[in-house]
Amino acid sequence: MHPDRRDRRRFETREEIKDTARALLAEQGAAGLSLRAIAKRMGMTAPGLYHYFGSINDLITALILDAFTQLAEAVEKADADVASRGGAERLAAVAHAWRRWAIDHPIDFQLLYGNPIPTYEQPTDTTYPAARRSFIVTATIFAQAIERGEIDLPEEYRRLPPEIERALDALTGVEGHDLPHHALYLAAISWARLHGHIMLELFHLIQPVIGDVDALFAHEVDALIRQVGLTPTE
Amino acid sequence: MHPDRRDRRRFETREEIKDTARALLAEQGAAGLSLRAIAKRMGMTAPGLYHYFGSINDLITALILDAFTQLAEAVEKADADVASRGGAERLAAVAHAWRRWAIDHPIDFQLLYGNPIPTYEQPTDTTYPAARRSFIVTATIFAQAIERGEIDLPEEYRRLPPEIERALDALTGVEGHDLPHHALYLAAISWARLHGHIMLELFHLIQPVIGDVDALFAHEVDALIRQVGLTPTE
DNA sequence: ATGCACATTCTAACAGTGTTAGATAAATGG
DNA sequence: CCATTTATCTAACACTGTTAGAATGTGCAT
Fold first, then answer.
1. Do A73 and A25 fall into the same domain?
2. Per the structure, how many domains does chain B have?
3. Are residues B87 and B38 in the same domain?
4. Which of A233, B9, B74, B106 is least surrounded by Cβ atoms within 10 Å, i.e. has the fewest?
5. Range of the domain at B140
6. Which CATH number characterizes residue B137's domain?
7. What do you get for the CA distance between the two ends of chain B, in Å?
8. C-alpha to C-alpha distance for B88 and A91, rounded to whole angstroms
9. Touching check for B77 and chain A: CB below 8 Å?
């Protein structure tokens, strides 16, 4: 059992490094993140960190994976909390939880979607599965809403573009792609739509033009729900 | 006239520095941008650049302002090319030009909306007016469409949230805010919506889930036009 | 308990980075 | 021709990620 303790200690040090990195990011932004700063705060030196992460890129990738997981958990929890309600309420809950997490963790969110480190190149094959997890929550909501007849698709979404039908056919088998095409499609456009609002809000680009971003987002979520044909239950 | 020539030479050097920086960004990404690299390629040394830009932040800000201008000009040109047509076609032209520019200049676009340099803090008061220019093109299209009765607003956009009405009232006087509230609002949600698609596409996050991003974007632009109540002319 | 193996951490160094100070060369104006 | 300004240089400082190699310490078996 001793080797276990050794492994556990190693794991704990890895976690401490990541926590320290997150603290520095939160305090000083991406500019404050450096191996020497992390090491100093932990009472060690920079080269020592190389026994836990192969490079600062690997460390950042680990932070990104954690952040994706945290976001996915927030989104999944929001959905679970209203799981008994209809698709409209579930979508609204997920949308607001998504934005809430982004607003509460701006640096993490920019880590995920803002590519804020110049030397850092995102290994998409690694991070994409983590990114997909939140997407699947949304797609599942749509799939169940379709199944239960809660959706009255408007004309523009009745028939998907043939190129996309073909592309989605080719993607069957990939995780999460056992869902109906319409669910995947509606989830994709919902994601993109809300993502745009969140990004512009995080960069303070939409506030000066519209004034009240809370009201804007809430109104757009309502509009989205209507426009995909989700009928508010009860 | 000699002082003129001196100023002109100074201006030309500034332009050469920016051009070199852009070339390095295009060739090697944000990681390849450094004062020493720029200076070396120009046959001078890094400290010499400080007579043209107070810091590398100032240089990046200048690049961003130029990029915003370039994007705005692309968008304005696309609108002007179909100025005689109705609002639906103009909005479609602007949307596709916007995306086209982002796809063709991914690094510049991330410079504008991705905050890719950690030491760099965007001076929003400086860059925001440049960012607004493209927005105003969209808002103007909506304003004219409303004026000409080309828009049949759906129920969800007939009445704007009272918080936003108040906020927009408070913003009257700001450049571009002499436009009707509905024009500003519809432009904002259109912007955010398309921005989300473009960002997710640039990060290759939506392609693996939907397959054909060209078809997706085109279809979403059509859906947007329908959903804001723009009636295709003719 | 001794010795071996390994995990961990250190120091020193290299090649970069932005930036400042101060000297130097070039161009302009009186 | 001289004085002043503009432009550019070299040297240096305090950083950065990273590697090599030595010095610790920990854990296990004999």
1. no
2. 2
3. no
4. B9
5. 68-227
6. 1.10.357.10
7. 57
8. 29
9. no
Measured between CB atoms, does B118 come within 8 Å of chain A? Answer: yes
Is position A59 within any domain?
no
Q: A51, A4, A7, A52: which is closest to A19 by C-alpha?
A: A52
Q: Is A129 on the interface with B (CB under 8 A)?
A: no
Give pLDDT tens digits for A7-45: 788 999 999 999 999 999 988 888 889 999 999 999 999
Asked whether residue A158 is assigned to any structural domain, the reply reads yes
Instruction: Give yes or no: residues A93 and A149 share one domain.
Output: yes
CA B142, chain centre distance (Å): 18
pLDDT tens-digit profile of A179-215?
A: 999 999 999 999 999 999 999 999 888 999 999 999 9
B200 interaction partners in chain A (CB closer than 8 Å): 191-192, 195
- Token pair for residue A42? 């932990």
Cβ B198 vs Cβ B99: under 8 Å: yes
A51-84 pLDDT, tens digit per residue, is: 999 999 999 999 999 999 999 999 999 999 999 9
User: Which chain A residues 35-74 have CB under 7 A to strand D?
Assistant: 35-37, 46-47, 50, 55-57
Contacts of A157 in chain B (CB under 8 A): 223
3-class state of residue A82 by DSSP: coil
Please enumerate in sequence order all residues whose Cβ is within 8 A of that of A3, keeping only pairs 6 or more positions apart, or say none. Answer: none
Interchain pair B135, A209: CB under 8 A: yes
Is A151 within 8 Å of B217 (Cβ atoms)? no
Q: Could you tell me the CA-to-CA distances from B232 to B87, B143, B228 in Å, in that order?
A: 8, 16, 12
Q: How many of the other CB atoms lie within 10 Å of CB of A4?
A: 8
B113–A118 C-beta distance less than 8 A: no
CATH code of the domain covering residue B42: 1.10.10.60
Range list of H helices, A82-180: 87-104, 106-113, 124-147, 155-158, 162-170
Residues A117 and A220 in one domain: yes
- From the list A33, A195, A220, the residue facing B199 with the nearest CB is A195
